[in-house]
């Protein structure tokens, strides 16, 4: 990887990720191909541009890798990838926001953001060829904020690589390929929530996602609803947090339950409260709490989906608040800043409910707000956040967005 060259200096200042990615690609290509002057990029065609959104998860935290239920919503913040094919099989990738460039040959195994690009290309190459390409990436999804910037990167890179290679995949298959890339290439034992959200969410809707059957159903959010993100400014890193520990605790709890219940349990999805209560004493206390979270969280997702479909936003808000308590107390993936963000939101007029979103241990909280009170609630939370949540807290509204797409084909 070559760091810190100045190809972006020539790019005009542009505001959206799509504009910045296109400008960065143009500057990048104009800068030439120092490493291999025999393989210049193909510059005639306009670039292919793919965008994929970040997400918040309204309810359904840490259920995905337990075959459970989630209710995410894609946000109107995106990773954009501008791409053009090359005549060789190399990927030359410019991360405009980091001012960094990576040059990847098939089989390379880089670190950092380039690991996601290499892993997606590697998985997509298993079925059919992926052509070499110049890629430029720009994003307005904050990183480390629990909004799944990594899945947005994977999906946008994947869609762009398929397009420059003349290939296509149904969105769910691309999501699964990107999920494998994250697990195998980056080492997070995550579930499918983030990749399915970035792939399959629809505008103006939340997505009811069954992680066992992988069936999805869009649930319209309604015009009168607003969504606020409260980014605590405490960065989380799934590879370094207790995330994989939670995955293992769930697996160990499932093993214990199989043994004592003498039942065929495929996953914690097959466990209900009656089964848990019947065998609670046989489980280590920490495992009991983890299972209780997963079982009750699946129920909260069902409730929230039904309530949202019925326009009962108070009930959705209650499910979010109960989900946060469960993630804090039973699953132990919250942190003081997230708890403070949820508490602050919950006491703000117009807020139906709030909870931490994403893996936890930092990152963001999401709040569901009466659309008419949104501006006022945002102002109130923004004003109190530095003192109540933390000096780097950021508060912004977002709209439910569509999943990954090629720009020009919306
Ligand atoms: C992270 C993971 C997801 C999911 C959430 C928690 O975002 O990548 O797979 O487990 O945490 O719900």
TrEMBL record:
Domain Galactokinase N-terminal span(s) in chain numbering: 46-85
GHMP kinase N-terminal domain sequence ranges: 116-200
GO terms of molecular function: ATP binding; galactokinase activity; metal ion binding
InterPro entries, per database record: Galactokinase, GalKase_N, GHMP_kinase_C_dom, GHMP_kinase_C_sf, GHMP_kinase_N_dom, GHMP_knse_ATP-bd_CS, Mevalonate/galactokinase, Ribosomal_Su5_D2-typ_SF
The keyword Methyltransferase appears for this protein: no
Segments forming domain GHMP kinase C-terminal: 305-385
GO BP annotations listed: galactose metabolic process
Cleaved signal peptide residues: none
Assigned protein family: Belongs to the GHMP kinase family. GalK subfamily.
Protein name listed in UniProt: Galactokinase
